[in-house]
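Service request form, structural biology core

Requester: graduate student, group of Dr. S.
Request type: structure prediction, single chain
Budget code: on file
Notes: please return the result as structure tokens.

Sequence provided:
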Amino acid sequence: MTASVTSTTEQHESNPPERAYRHPAWLERLFGVARRGSTVGTEIRGGVVTFFAMAYIVILNPIIIGGTETRAATDVLGGWLPNGQVAAATALTAGVMTILFGVVANLPFGLAAGLGVNSFLAVSVIQDVTWQEAMGLVVINGVVITILSLTGLRERIFDAIPQQLKTAITVGIGLFIAFIGLVDAGFVRSSGIASPPVQLADNGSISTWPVVMFVITLVIMGVLMARKVRGALLIGLVVSTILAMILEGVLHLGSSVDSAGGWSLNVPELPSTLLSVPDLSLVGAVDFGAFARIGWLSATMLVFTLFFTSFFDAMGTMTGLAKAAGLADEQGNFPRLRSAMVMEGVAVAAGGATSCSANTVFVDSAAGVGEGARTGLASVVTGLLFLAAMFLTPLTAIVPSEVAAAALVAVGSLMVAQIRDIDWSEYSAALPVFLTITVMPLTYSIANGIGVGFISWVVIRTLSGRWRDISPLMWVVALGFLVYFARGPIETLMGV
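Core staff response, request fulfilled:
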């Protein structure tokens, strides 16, 4: 994909490329690969790139919500989720839900355990309930989202969002994933002081080989994309991983846990074994006793918080990805919108049912979209690789996060290009748009960016005399976000 991809859904569906595509007719009927201007090879390549961009979740999710006997996120009763079981459940759920999403919604988006929800569970929720009860709340959250999607209410909320804000969401997500990439690579770090809160690498100096490897990878990808080389991101990932393995073989950098100059997550070296038998003991280990343990009001507030994080994170992510893929029309709508929203709600519930946390559309799918993926076939490829990852968990750890992070930065730059479609002449719209774009990366949350954007849009447009242009649903959602942002004081007042 290049930054100039702006074709509407109608153009993709009605004007396929003139060259012939040689693939089975059933594949075309199911996914419409040619109709969307793609090829089977491009879809496979995009699916592979998306997997490698997302594969870190199989390693990272256990670190957040799992643990070992010596280090774990323990719940109110001292219980914890074993790392190996979390990894297996994470790969299983991501694989199954991504495949189903690809077939039903026919969009090139990968799904896996969302980082916002799992962190909230590990830091806050399990202080009051057990892990099994926390996952029960996630299931309830997913059911609510699915019902709203099936009834069309979620789609109506989506349609009520002004086009300016939809575009701002795309741009904000582009900055967000680029920031994620920079942080994951260690190119941007916390300064440890109030001001400035972040800094370049180590005290403004690039002093470790993994960060150098990130820069090299970004340069490789940038040059290949600038020269319009097909498979630029995948080639960059493969070549850079090989270089990283050579670097590790020569310098023996190891993990950052053991050495200050080591790799932050995955050490790029061949594992001692390629196969492992997945332990799926966590599947179905769910308890709905949170309401009895902490009371209906407290449990409902937890579900409310989970709901807002899941509901709007996914909606914003899908909007941005669809626009980046050139599948969205001028209003930001894309093919099978309702199916996509329903399947995302099912994925949230499935993540709770398998105890790997709520699954959602991953913004990292932008890597595959940037590689040219346009249909659900890419998602099927990504999902199959996740299922294989259950057995090949050691192999998925070869690609260092510093290398994968470069793909996020490269694709983020393409998504930010959508800023050209925003009309900055009307300040009552410009300020909410600006806040949406900036709050996402600065607070590390898509939901926060959307919430601030919605509230400021309603308030500023109303006080500027433009209240007639605001949909009633925008008022309802903005009020909901006000409650969401003020949930701490509200809980205190209610004695929760």
